[in-house]
Amino acid sequence: MRMWPPGGSPEAPVVAAAVLALAAAGEVLLRADGRVPLPLALSLALAATAPVAVLAAPRRPSAGSGAVGAAASTVAAAGLLALTPFHVLTAAALAVVLFALHRAGLHGPKVLAVLLPLPFVGYALTGAGFLAVLMAAGAAAAAGTGLARRARDTALAHDATERAIADTLLAHAARGERARIARELHDVVAHHISMIAVQAETARLTTPGLPAAGAERFLAIGDTARTALTEMRRLLGVLREDAGPAAAAPERRPQPGIEQLGELVDEARDASGGALRLIVEGPIRPLDAGVELTAYRIVQEALTNARRHAPGAAIDVELRYAPGVLRLRVRDNGPSPHSSADHDDGHGLLGMRERAAMAGGTLRAGPAHGGGFLIEATFPVPPREPREPREPREPREPRDSREQAA
């Protein structure tokens, strides 16, 4: 119930209060019949209309509800006195009473918003007439709509806050996971680039009869590899600074792979106390380091999610080596298909999907047929090209022997 658009001129509530007070006073003067003292009738009319300047003032979230409660109580008391003993309630006062009860429900103390309509309802129950019944119904409706709107606004604000917090947590988790992936990718790629630098330097120094141009090429390859390593370490330093001081100097250790899945499964079995199996099908063959690291991290996150959302459930971890593809499945047999449905509300699946995409694979997650939750990832595995056999070199004679032969 709004008497004018919000956000208007700051003087609008005062002007409206003055207009309503003049209208109420004019109506009192026109209806004056001498049965009620004119000063008393004018005082009740002003008391029932003038507080609208306080009631209609813009409310701030930090403002207290005391001023609204006091103004609404003054208006309701003046309106009730004008209605019951003296019968001098004006049309302007009637409108302001309903507006005051609505504002009390919206911005005033809730207890006061419930109590203020009760005298009007009690007066109507005494059989005072149609006006009293209309006033009671209007008072209850005005206070009720104010309370309902307050509850709706509070719920909307609470939902908006929860959404903002959830979005912030999701963005923070995504940034942390991407930084972690970037660091692990650095460790994997840095190994290969280091090997390029070492092999180029070794070839330059050990190849007999190498032309000067070839030596310069090998030297350039080594310099380029070392430059790439320097740039990657600089980028990694920025990522670790963003992650905080705790991540500035992490413990250095080799990145895990598929060979470490057995240890991971044993640790998860000891931590959860449930049945946990590692099933491997197909001929085992070495894979790219990035694919092995991604598979390990996906299994690690899947076991963590299963332990959190389906504690005590049996879990199967399956690795299937097929021609040109590696299939990874992690399934828990929770009590119902929906036992792990809240997996999607967390951030683990987001990181797993990003890891799978980084390695060129795909990941699917959802309720499994027959119950539980299933995470399935597929990675393409290109066949390794066989290396050409090197021609055997002729044994080189010792330098001293050649000199003796000469």
How does the major sheet shape up? 5 strands, mixed
Number of domains: 3
Shape summary: elongated
Helix count, DSSP H or I runs of 4 or more residues: 13
Strand order of the largest sheet: 1-2-3-5-4
Note the beta-strand portion: 5-15%
Summarize the helix and strand pattern as letters.
Answer: HHHHHHHHHHEHEEHEEH
Distance between the termini: 116 Å
Radius of gyration of CA atoms, rounded to a whole number? 40 Å
For this structure, the quaternary state is: single chain
Mean pLDDT: 79
Pfam family, one: HATPase_c
Region (Disordered): 362-406
Keywords: ATP-binding, Kinase, Membrane, Nucleotide-binding, Phosphoprotein, Transferase, Transmembrane, Transmembrane helix, Two-component regulatory system
InterPro entries: HATPase_C_sf, HATPase_dom, Sensor_HK_TwoCompSys, Sig_transdc_His_kin_sub3_dim/P
Which key features would you list for this structure?
406 residues; alpha+beta; Heat Shock Protein 90; five-stranded mixed beta sheet; 5 strands; elongated; disordered C terminus
In short:
The chain is α+β, with helices and mostly antiparallel strands. 60% of the residues lie in helices and 9% in strands.
Characterization of this structure:
One of its GO terms (molecular function) is kinase activity. The relative contact order is 0.06. This protein is about 60% helix and about 10% strand. Helix 7 runs antiparallel to helix 8 and helix 8 (about 130-205) packs antiparallel against helix 9 (about 210-245). It has helices spanning about 10-30, 40-50, 50-55, 65-85, 90-105, 110-115, 120-125, 130-205, 210-245, 260-270, 290-310, 350-360, 400-405; strands at about 275-280, 315-320, 325-330, 360-365, 375-380. It is α+β, with helices and mostly antiparallel strands. The chain is built from 13 helices and 5 strands. It folds into 3 domains: about 10-160, no CATH class; about 170-245; about 260-380, Heat Shock Protein 90 (2-Layer Sandwich), CATH 3.30.565.
